[in-house]
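Pipeline run #58 for the internal structure catalog. This entry was flagged by the ingest filter as a single-chain record with no existing model, so it goes straight to prediction. Upstream metadata was stripped on purpose; only the residue string is passed forward. Reviewer on rotation: M.T. Logging verbosity set to normal.
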Amino acid sequence: MDDGFRRTQHVRKKVLMRFLIQCAVAVGVCVAAAPVANFGAEGDPYVWPAYTPSLNYNYKERIGTFPMPTKDLDDKCAGVVGTQSSGWWTFKWGRNKRSVVTEKAITPMLERLNKDFAYFRDSMGWAPDSRIRAGGRSAVYLFGSGTCTDGADVDSNSLGGWQSSVGGHPIILASYYPVYSFDPASTYADKLSQQGAMVHEGIHSLLASLPGARHAAWFHEGGNTWLQQEADTRRNPGKAPGPMGFLNAAAVIAPFIPIESYSGWLLDGSFGGPAAEGVNQYGADGKQLCNWRNLLGGYQYGNMFPTFLGEWVGKGTIPWIWNYAKGRVLQGMADTLGDAQTRRLIQEYRARIALMDMKKWSDEVKRLANANFGSTIKTEYTPAVAEVEPWTASMYAKTADSSGVLVPEPRTLPGWSGANYVPLKVSGNLAKVGFRPIGQNMSLQLCYRAADGTPVYGVPVTSGSATLRLDKAPANGVVIAVVVNTDYKYLGDATRKAKYDYRLVPETGVTGAAETTRKWYDTKLDYTASVGAPQRFAERVSGRLRLGLSPDRHFLDIRFVLDRPGAARLSLYTAYGALVRRLGSRTLPAGEHAQSVDLGALGIHRGTFLVRLESGSQHEVATITLVR
């Protein structure tokens, strides 16, 4: 693991010495000397470092813009007898077109596609599909109408819609049903979802034109639904985000499923691979058998991981994946981030979901958890590969106490890149848990939502004891042990079928496992309870608290003035109000004081951070942004 996971004693001593030297030459009374010993001390909270290099890509900036095409490509598709075009899109059909598919349906369909894809291109910077880049319009073909897209067993009554290709370029291939759903006269109960599905397939055409995720069918679905979700949110900036698609619940209530899984937890207990490996099973009659469970079988359509990347790593991360992660997603990211950062990213994703810590999506994550917590997960339909014992959905992993050692339930052990969330009852001001990994590449992190609503994270460990000070009271008296397998390489069935075992040993302040049937996450969610709302920070900044950076940008220099003598405390927070570190507290005289903070030792390289000074009735907040 990298330094952000576990600082060595050598680094701690070096930080201490650096602070002592700086304090000796500082002007005025230096408050650093007393709290310096706490840097890297047992139980310190943890701030997630930024990922370097940053993963950012904007197709509009990289490949430029394209003029609206004025023609269709010559697909040499036999059977096409009719075409209607508008703007960037064209619709084609054969002689067997059903009578319900008229201009009354085609015109609004083309209008919707033009509107949505103009937003993807012009406002979000996404590349158009390969048809437009080749000089032609994007295309929709009518399935079942007798064109070259249809097989011998297809007729005008055939249903369905998906992304296909004709003439070497992607198309939307749709039956009469979703097309007629655009007709104002349509009485289909699901016509709105059918209209959205047509946009979904159009996004597939766009994504199929990009070089990334060639061996990641799951991302072709989850990355697709993320783009629709993100577009809807950006187009309505004054509206609360959401709702998220209901299939996002699978990643919340079943964190043991790997990130790169298609159809989730299969009926044999293994997991669907990134490109649906293991999912498709057939009976003697050649018909497909169900091999998945209800809700979890749609795991690939959930976009929780892309949402995490967009919120916490960067908006340009998803376009970056489609350009640079050319095979599998996590492996492609690791080619640039390296092994240690990729493993840390997996840990961060799992810990943030455990605390519903997803910025503007936090309330939606909680809503999805509430809607599915306690539901029954079983074989979705028959004929099936097997009938499985029903599982009562809970994001928390069951454990059994064996002579003071917590042993997890084997059935829901983590798969590769999967996690268990184990709720622990705590008391006092320190939580300490021994970690005994049995599977390889395992890590443990303690974290909790404080009673004031803010998230608090501990330093992740790969063995030994994980420790976290409870400077703020944990909501409900519970801390979550986030146990993660950080493997990100998919190596076939051996990876897909593997599960990773471990043991937890309650130590200081931990009285045992809490019940898994209670919604421990259902607490106040607030980033700013301790420091005020972000939009008010500027109003509270005073000349009595000033921040600066050393020339090498490794040290944060804090200067402040106390109005009167007394106890003074400095604290460092993220821009969203999560505590990074208490910087020290001691009694000082009135007047000017100074302190220096080693940002490198904290794993901080970029981002916006807040410093808060508290002394009696004096409260000051200042912000600083680091750009590397």
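catalog note: Residues 396-513 form a domain with the Jelly Rolls fold (CATH 2.60.120).
catalog note: The radius of gyration is 27 Å.
status: ready for reviewer M.T.
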